[in-house]
Design a protein that fits this description.
Elements (H helix, E strand, L loop, with lengths): L12 H16 L6 H8 L3 H4 L6 H24 L6 H22 L3 H36 L10 H13 L10 H17 L2
Length: about 200
C-alpha cells in the first residue's frame, strides 16, 4: 500500500506562500533560505508575504503545522474501521508519519537540517502529532480486539502502539532503496499482528 504526502495546491495566498516556503527550504535549507527566496518562489512581493507570515521561522512553523495536520488527516482516514484488516489500518496510520521524513529526504539534500530545525521550532507540534498518532493506533488495536481479530489478553493496546512507533523510528533509510523503510514497516506491522492473532 503506497503512502504519499500531499501539499495543498491552491491560489490562496497563504497556500502559495507555504508551497514556496517548502520549495525554498528544501532547495536551500532553513539557514540559507531568505524571505526574498520565499517571496520570489510565491511570485509575491515581500510586503505581501509579510501580511501572512511574520518571518522565516513563522513560515517554517506554519508549514510544519500544515504538514502535520495533513498527515494526521491521512492517519485518521487510515485508522477508519471500514472493513480493512487491522494490519492495513495500522500500516496506514504509521505510513502517514513515516512519509513525512521520507518525503523530506526525497525532496531535499538538507533533510537533516530541516528535521533539526523542526525539533527546535515546533517540537511541541511534533509531540502532539505523535500523541494523536499513538491514540489512533490504540483505537485500531482496541477495535480489532473487540471484533476478535486480535487477542490482547494480558496486553495493553497503548504498549503495543509504543512498540509500533518505536519500530517506525528505527527503520533504515537507504537512499539506494527508498522503498526499504515502507517494506520494513509493513513487515513490522505484519509481525505485530501475527503475534496478536488468535
Amino acid at each position: 500500500m503506497p503512502c504519499a504526502i500531499f501539499l495543498p495546491m491552491s491560489d490562496e495566498p497563504i497556500d502559495r506562500i507555504l508551497d514556496a516556503a517548502y520549495a525554498s527550504f528544501a532547495r536551500h535549507g532553513v539557514r540559507r533560505t531568505t524571505m526574498d527566496d520565499i517571496a520570489t518562489a510565491a511570485q509575491m512581493s515581500r510586503p505581501a508575504v509579510y501580511q501572512y507570515v511574520r518571518n522565516k521561522d513563522d513560515a517554517f512553523r506554519q508549514l510544519g503545522t500544515r504538514l502535520f495536520d495533513a498527515a494526521l488527516q491521512r492517519a485518521t482516514a487510515a485508522a477508519a474501521d471500514d472493513g480493512r484488516s487491522v494490519a492495513a489500518r495500522l500500516y496506514g496510520v504509521l505510513c502517514a508519519k513515516l512519509e513525512l521524513a521520507l518525503q523530506l529526504e526525497r525532496d531535499s539534500p538538507h533533510a537533516g537540517e530541516l528535521l533539526d530545525a523542526s525539533a527546535r521550532l515546533f517540537g511541541e507540534l511534533f509531540e502532539g502529532f505523535i500523541a494523536a498518532t499513538h491514540g489512533l493506533l490504540v483505537g485500531v488495536l482496541d477495535s480489532a480486539a473487540a471484533r476478535g481479530e486480535i487477542d490482547l489478553t494480558g496486553l495493553r493496546a497503548a504498549e503495543i502502539a509504543d512498540v509500533a512507533l518505536a519500530l517506525e523510528r528505527g527503520l533504515v533509510h537507504d537512499p539506494a532503496d527508498p522503498e526499504r523503510p515502507l517494506r520494513q514497516q509493513r513487515l513490522g506491522v505484519d509481525l505485530i499482528v501475527a503475534g496478536l492473532s488468535r
